[in-house]
């Protein structure tokens, strides 16, 4: 028996029969398992087999320039960077401004660590980073562009033409298939975004030290004790924000107020994704029959068999670098991390202010002010070091 388990056993025996409220020592074996998988992610995202150029430095260099170029938009004033600005690659307002002063419906997520995601957009309507880029490019509210505008921009700038031709073997002017041109541009934009990683955070060092303290039997004295305990036990945060990326890569209805046209979340995204010409099982994918195809078919089965679970469901975002992405949630309604913690403490927003059924994990938490503060401090410690 490990010293830790021995201590647990003795303590629970001591509490038995005393009549006082007994709480099992933190962490239990199950909780320890959750803590053990919160390790620092690898420095680079896993290879994306559907994008042959995903880790190509020349592609990333071209992608970086295109990311900053408002000339890819039809109005000529909006680049990817317009809505993914600053250190957090997002905006400080709930929504962002596209062509002609139009506002997006949702809050732009940070692009830090985007290469680690398994689904894209709050509702999951893109399944790979390269195809995601085609959505803002062609969205009338955002860049309002198309293959004609994008091709013209590549042709007008000789260094773009040279880099594109070298990577794809065809000059942009000769690329007759507009969808292929957009997919290629998406792939270089993805190659760039796959370099925007901040993985190593004070949080990781704290977790490692805490695990040692558990071994040594001094967990309760560790400065991270209350924050981790609240995150894992009372707050149940780790149920969804788990593992290296602090997300389960799934979609949940947390009961967030939303009366906008996209309030049904994943429920309105699945069908479009399955029939989308740019999905990872489609003709523009570099591995159309690989695991991505199986992933899409599993998604379909799940949406068909449990339709109630996708209504009002949004993707669990990573919590890494979360301090840099205020305001929060898909609506951008929560201004600070304190507000997010209050939201969870209340068990979400009022019934009737969102569609669908709130998932059962989201309940009133009764957190003390110390627990709330410890949770906020923990979230702030998740900001990774810039490389
Ligand atoms: C007008 C503002 C705007 C522009 C321009 C814009 N985005 Fe976004 N971006 C958003 C919003 C809003 C979302 C979330 C949309 C949603 O989930 O429905 C988003 C989502 C994303 C995501 C998904 C991140 C995630 O974690 O799911 C990526 C990646 C991204 N944008 C990259 C880009 C790229 C690349 C470009 C340029 C081709 C771009 N964006 C242009 C506003 C913008
Ligand atoms: C049932 C799964 C689940 C649980 C439990 C959960 N979350 Fe979340 N979390 C989500 C989902 C899904 C979203 C996005 C919700 C939306 O915008 O509709 C989210 C969003 C967030 C955000 C906003 C991130 C951003 O970039 O906007 C923070 C911060 C957060 N959660 C922290 C926590 C904390 C702290 C706890 C524990 C008190 C917790 N979560 C519990 C699933 C969960």
TrEMBL record:
GO terms for molecular function: cytochrome-c peroxidase activity; electron transfer activity; heme binding; metal ion binding. It is found in: Periplasm. Keywords: Heme, Iron, Metal-binding, Oxidoreductase, Periplasm, Peroxidase, Signal. Its cofactor is heme. Its main location: periplasm. Binds 2 heme groups per subunit. The keyword Oxidoreductase applies. Heme c 2 binds at residues 237, 240-241. One of its GO terms (cellular component) is periplasmic space. Binds 2 heme groups. Residues 222-383 form the Cytochrome c domain. Signal peptide: none annotated. Heme c 1 binds at residues 80, 83-84. PANTHER family: BLL6722 PROTEIN, CYTOCHROME C PEROXIDASE-RELATED. This is Cytochrome-c peroxidase. It comes from Corallococcus sicarius.
């Amino acid at each position: 028996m490990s010293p830790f388990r021995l201590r647990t056993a003795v303590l629970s025996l001591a509490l038995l029969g005393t009549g006082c409220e007994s709480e099992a020592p933190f962490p239990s074996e199950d909780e320890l398992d959750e803590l053990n998988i919160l390790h620092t992610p690898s420095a680079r995202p896993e290879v994306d087999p559907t994008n042959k150029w995903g880790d190509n430095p020349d592609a990333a260099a071209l992608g970086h320039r295109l990311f900053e170029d408002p000339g890819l938009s039809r109005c000529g004033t909006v680049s990817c960077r317009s809505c993914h600005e600053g250190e957090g690659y997002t905006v400080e307002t709930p929504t962002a401004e596209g062509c002609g002063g139009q506002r997006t419906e949702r809050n732009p997520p940070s692009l830090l660590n985007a290469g680690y995601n398994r689904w894209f957009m709050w509702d999951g309507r893109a399944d790979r980073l390269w195809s995601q880029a085609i959505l803002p490019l062609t969205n009338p509210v955002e860049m309002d562009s198309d293959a004609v505008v994008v091709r013209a921009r590549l042709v007008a700038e000789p260094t773009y033409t040279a880099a594109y031709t070298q990577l794809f073997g065809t000059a942009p002017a000769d690329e007759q298939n507009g969808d292929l041109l957009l997919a290629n541009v998406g792939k270089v934009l993805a190659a760039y975004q796959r370099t925007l990683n901040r993985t190593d955070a004070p949080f990781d060092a704290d977790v490692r030290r805490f695990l040692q303290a558990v071994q040594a039997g001094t967990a309760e004295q560790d400065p991270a004790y209350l924050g981790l305990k609240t995150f894992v036990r009372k707050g149940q945060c780790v149920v969804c924000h788990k593992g290296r990326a602090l997300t389960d890569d799934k979609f949940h209805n947390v009961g967030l107020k939303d009366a906008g046209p996209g309030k049904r979340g994943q429920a309105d995204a699945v069908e479009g994704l399955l029939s989308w010409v740019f999905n990872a099982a489609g003709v523009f994918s570099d591995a159309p029959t690989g695991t991505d195809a199986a992933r899409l078919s599993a998604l379909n089965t799940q949406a068909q068999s449990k339709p109630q679970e996708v209504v009002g469901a949004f993707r669990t975002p990573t919590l890494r670098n979360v301090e840099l992405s205020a305001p929060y949630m898909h609506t951008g309604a929560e201004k600070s991390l304190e507000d997010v913690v209050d939201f969870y403490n209340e068990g979400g927003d009022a019934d009737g202010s969102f569609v669908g059924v709130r998932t059962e994990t989201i309940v009133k938490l009764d957190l003390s002010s110390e627990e709330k503060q410890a949770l906020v401090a923990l979230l702030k410690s998740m900001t990774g070091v810039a490389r």
